[in-house]
Design goal:
The chain is an alpha/beta fold. The chain has one domain: Rossmann fold, CATH 3.40.50. Helices cover 32% and strands 19% of the residues. The protein contains 7 helices and 10 strands. The strands form 2 sheets. The protein has a 7-stranded parallel sheet with strand order 1-10-9-6-2-3-5, sandwiched between helices. It has a 3-stranded antiparallel sheet with strand order 4-8-7. Strand 9, helix 7 and strand 10 form a beta-alpha-beta unit. Helix 1 crosses helix 2 and helix 2 runs parallel beside helix 3. The longest helix has 23 residues. The two termini are 14 Å apart.
């Protein structure tokens, strides 16, 4: 894992977008195709705007998955991750294949198995990610399951995670925040050839310290990134404020 610290979140987004573009272009040059996993949330706003504005990425020859989606939330809801990605990525660059999680599917197990079949055998070139205030990676809240082999799993969202979603303005009340989600598993994320993770704001500083110092543990899910040789973590000064770098 490699950590880089920048003065503000705009610099984080630019550096992360530059690295992500390099990884996508390299995969496209070597194999004529690239597979990536997109993330959502406040940390991804500027990053996705910059990445989708980067010239020279052959988007029609890419395949896109995404990290997680609430269970039971319709796509029309402002907090829907499908809606988020369609507006901020898919409709801007039109990847060749797009596989979105249908969190409101009538048969959740069938949807989970569909996603598992789609990603099986595909080598993911790069996964985009952030970390939560509770240290989660995707929606793998602590204590995360580091052992499950399935690519996509159903998870319970803890209160800290749900309060973060409320605090970021996605929902009007805590009761409205879903309690379950379909999430890419830790093991599947770690199978990615590269991971580009960005974290900003002081509210994430304790999680950054917990995950990137001390031991690798399911209690701090994103700590697992320290075991990946090509995980690139981009922090702003506030998120890195509790680290001794």
């Amino acid at each position: 894992m490699e950590i880089s610290v920048f003065s503000n979140k705009t610099e984080v987004a630019q550096a992360a977008a530059t690295r992500a573009a390099e990884l996508l272009k390299d995969a496209l040059a070597r194999r004529g195709h690239a597979t990536f996993v997109a993330a959502t949330g406040v940390s991804q706003y500027e990053f996705l705007a910059m990445l989708t504005s980067t010239p020279g990425i052959d988007w029609p020859h890419t395949t896109m998955f995404h990290l997680d989606e609430y269970i039971g939330l319709p796509e029309a809801h402002p907090a829907s991750f499908r809606r988020y990605l369609k507006e901020r990525l898919v409709e801007r660059v039109h990847p060749g294949a797009v596989y979105l999680i249908q969190g409101d599917a009538p048969d959740l197990e069938a949807e989970r198995q569909r996603l598992n079949r789609l990603v099986a055998g595909l080598g993911v070139d790069v996964t985009f990610a952030g970390i939560g205030e509770n240290g989660h990676l995707a929606f793998n809240d602590p204590p995360a399951d580091f052992e499950v082999e399935d690519a996509y799993i159903v998870v319970e969202l803890d209160e800290a995670c749900r309060r973060q979603q409320l605090g970021e303005g996605w929902f009007a009340s805590l009761d409205e925040v879903p309690r379950r989600a379909i999430s890419m598993s830790i093991r599947q994320i770690m199978k990615s050839r590269a991971i580009v993770c960005m974290v900003s704001e002081r509210r994430k500083a304790q999680a950054v310290r917990d995950c990137f110092t001390g031991e690798v543990t399911p209690v701090h899910p994103a700590s697992v990134l320290r075991q990946h040789k090509h995980a690139y973590v981009f922090l702003d000064a506030e998120a890195a404020s509790l680290l001794n770098l």
